Amino acid sequence: MKIRWKLLILLLVIALVPLIVGSFLNRTSMRRLGVQLASDRREILTKNARQHLQHIVDGYGEIITRDIEILELALIIQADGVEDRLAGKPPASPQLFFGEDYDKGDNLPSGMKASASLKRLGPDGKVVPIQVTYDQQVCVLVAGIDRKTVADDLACLSTMPKVYRSLHKSNAKRMSWQYTSLESGIHTSYPGHGGYPPDYDPRVRTWYTQAKEENALTWTLPAVDVSTRTVALSLAMPVHYPDGSFAGVTAIDVPLGSVFSELTLPGQWSDDTSSLLVFPGMKGDETEGKLVILTQKSYEGHGKDWRAPELKQYLESEDVDELKSLMADAVSGKSGVRKMRYKGKDALWAYGAGGAEKQFPIIIVPYEKIIAEAAGAEKYVLTQIAQGLRVAGIVMVSVVVVVVIVSFFISRRVTMPLVRLADAAERLAAGDYDAGVQIRTGDELQELGEIFNDMGPKLRQHADMQRSLAVAMEIQQQLLPSESPKIDGFDVAGTSIYCDETGGDYYDFIDLVDLGSGKLGIAVGDVTGHGIGAALLMASARGVLRSHAGRYGGDLSELFSVLNTHLVRDTGETRFMTLFYGVLDATKRSLMWTSAGHDPAIWLRRSMGKIEELPNTGMPLGILEGATFDSVKPVTLEAGDVVAIGTDGIWEAANSAGDMFGKDRMREVLSASAEKSAAEIHDAVVAAVNEFLGQTHQQDDITLVIIKAL
Predict the structure, then answer these.
(1) Cα–Cα distance measured from residue 285 to residue 644, given in angstroms and rounded to the nearest whole number
(2) If DSSP codes are grouped into helix, strand and coil, which group holds residue 577?
(3) How far apart are CA 683 and CA 218, in angstroms?
(4) Which of 359, 390, 424 is the last residue of a domain?
(5) CB-based burial, 9-29: b 16+ in 10 Å, e otherwise
(6) Once rounded to an integer, what is the mean pLDDT over residues 540-559?
(7) Mean pLDDT to the nearest integer, 263-276
(8) d(Cα 354, Cα 301) in Å, to the nearest integer?
(9) CATH number of the domain within which 702 lies
């Protein structure tokens, strides 16, 4: 069957079968899909909400813990300040400002201004700022207390503004009022302000009585502040006279707004979300087994009765068992997110890690808010499905007509270029690199034809390149020594193993007959990179070294200067060469060397049982014209000594795990095979490197020359 008929049948099957089957099944399956998508979306939204709430409540819990610790530390410092002053000698001329001074406007201290954060209801029912001063405190005496009888305590507390001010500067957002009340009927508050009722007695306030009774730092339930008429939290602790007797209570008010100031919720949740700070009830108390609310949004606002008792509300849920589990988690220091009922509706409760009798945050988000997006998405999907089904019916009829017409016209357009391509491919396979095809369809078939036409020249070029590389490799191999040299008293062996067809490593043995008998030049070099460029630079360096080695063989510093000058002029800025060159003297059994930035040769001193290095004496060649190279004193080689000169392709060889062979392994192989011949030592090192690499391809050229003294 011809391709055109196959194409027609294929197009009809592809187009008609899905449309026909879809006309019966699509409506039901798509509806199920819409419902499933909405369900999946609900799960994703719920999961994301859980994770997000967990993150928020954990972070917020850490902030609350931090703030509590800071406030408690501030209160301890404040209490220390009060006790220090009660223990000291009262000032001779204390500066005191009383409530009536602030109320009348007479004898006002400096710095009076309207507070941006401390406000109360004015006579007209509007909230107005309170006039305060951060330079002084206010002194208030309980009705019936004679100022003269408490003059000493007043004088002692007259310098407390300094302590208050220092603590307030670093905690302005965490505290509203700082105050101290003594059992003698004195009350001082910072910042200084007026507005105290005539019958105000701090000694009957809960924060005072609770701290006095427990004789420890305490947090009280929310209560109405006498100055702002807003609900605030208080932390208080007792203070004592030097003899240990009870003197009074010092305290700090914490505005509820500061508790939630760093809590940020997504905009779609914020309106209906409940943010609370709670603590577990104490054993033996009426609050036992309950979560007592310390702060919530409903507590905020002005105008409340300051005489009202502290607010005591409990957090409740219809899911009683879940609430008990939540409280157990929090008390044991675990945070989490639970789905529970709240005020008759499902909600996600995120709770922080608390502890026994410790506060922790709870964020409650209505579940309908979390899945609102999924509900809207479900409705939208079902609407779109209905519209899509109507369109699909129209499209099905149109597609049938179009497929039949188009298949007849495009089949020939597709098949003829393929026939021509097949013919040209047969000619190319037979070795005709000029085989080509002309296709003018203006589509992918034309692109395929153009790509095919480019294959012949590229294949010819590739074949030529392979032949050229083979010739280059053969030439470079001919530049390297074909056999090991013969020199009395020494056994010498070496080789270069390239990672590509050509490389940048170089080694050479030069018979220095011009310098006398029994002298052999030994060179090991490493050109940056590998490939043709490195091979050319290596060949250039070899030629210069061989042509000048006999002339400057006795002065290696001068020889390297000449070689460096040639390479600087021959190389660009991106290539250079390291080179170790030594002159082996059979008569003196010595080795004189100079090293241009090459890795130190390894000298195994067999008789002494240790390994030393022959360090480099200058910078790499080809970098800086005019560079100098130091000469070093020749070393004498004793029988059994081994000198190994290699390139970094040995110790930097890396296996599949990324570990390098390293010089320590090389030294171990040299020590283990030191009794063998130079060729056997050489082969042992190469074999160890290959075993270390395993299946990993060699990434750099490896060159190694072994000199063994006999």
Answers:
(1) 86
(2) strand
(3) 82
(4) 424
(5) eebeeebeeebeebeeebeee
(6) 86
(7) 73
(8) 28
(9) 3.60.40.10
- Work out the pLDDT band at 247, boundaries 50, 70, 90: very high
pLDDT digits (tens, 9 = 90+) for 693-706: 998 988 888 999 99
CA distance 400 to 417: 27
Token pair in block for residue 675: 């009794």
Retrieve residue 337's tokens.
């997110």
Q: What are the Cα distances from residue 651, in Å, to 102, 173, 504, 690, 703?
A: 85, 62, 17, 12, 11
pLDDT the model gives residue 706: 96
Tell me, what amino acid is at 322? E
Separation between Cα atoms, residue 10 and residue 333, nearest integer Å: 66
Those residues whose C-beta lies under 8 Å from the C-beta of residue 683, and which sit 6 or more positions away, are none
Beta strands in 175-290 (DSSP E): 178-182, 186-190, 218-219, 223-224, 231-240, 246-255, 274-280
The strand pairing partners of 633, in sequence order, are: none
Looking at residue 535, its pLDDT comes to: 79
Spatial distance between the Cα atoms of 78 and 708, rounded to a whole number of angstroms: 83
My answer on whether omega of the bond before 161 falls inside 30° of 0, hence cis, is no
Cα–Cα distances in angstroms (integers) from residue 215 to residues 218, 222, 583, in the given order: 9, 20, 92
Strand partners, 342: 345
What does the block give as tokens for 293? 């609310």
Q: Are 593 and 702 found together in one domain?
A: yes
What DSSP element (H or E) covers 524? strand 519-527
Regarding whether 378 and 284 lie in a shared domain, the answer is: no
| pLDDT band, residue 61 (cuts 50/70/90) | confident
H/E element holding 351? strand 345-351
d(CA 493, CA 143): 110
Q: What angle, 0 to 180 degrees and rounded to 10, lies between the N-to-C axes of helices 532-552 and 444-479?
A: 20
Taking phi first (over 0 means left), then psi (-120 to 50 degrees means alpha), and beta for anything else, what does residue 509 get?
Answer: beta
Whose CA is closest to 683, among 672, 697, 695, 698? 672
Confidence (pLDDT) at 636 = 95
Domain containing residue 322: CATH number? 3.30.450
Q: Residue 466 corresponds to which tokens in the numbers above?
A: 């392979």
Domain coverage including residue 301: 267-370
Radius of gyration of the chain (CA): 46
d(CA 125, CA 127): 7
Instruction: State whether 202 and 340 are in the same domain.
Output: no
Please tell me whether the overall predicted TM-score, pTM, comes out greater than 0.90 for this model: no
- Are 308 and 346 members of one domain? yes
Q: How far apart are the first and last CA of the chain?
A: 83
Q: What pLDDT, in 10s, does the model give residues 408-426?
A: 666 666 667 767 777 877 7
C-alpha triplet 308, 311, 314: angle, nearest 5°: 155
Is 165 in contact with 134 (CB distance < 8 Å)? yes
| For residue 303, pLDDT beyond 60 | no
User: How many secondary structure helices (H) and strands (E) does the chain include?
Assistant: 15, 26
Task: Please give the helix or strand (H or E) that residue 348 lies within, else none.
Answer: strand 345-351
Q: What is the mean pLDDT of the chain?
A: 84
Q: Provide CB contacts within 8 A for 63, sequence distance 6+.
A: 262
413 shares its domain with 552: no
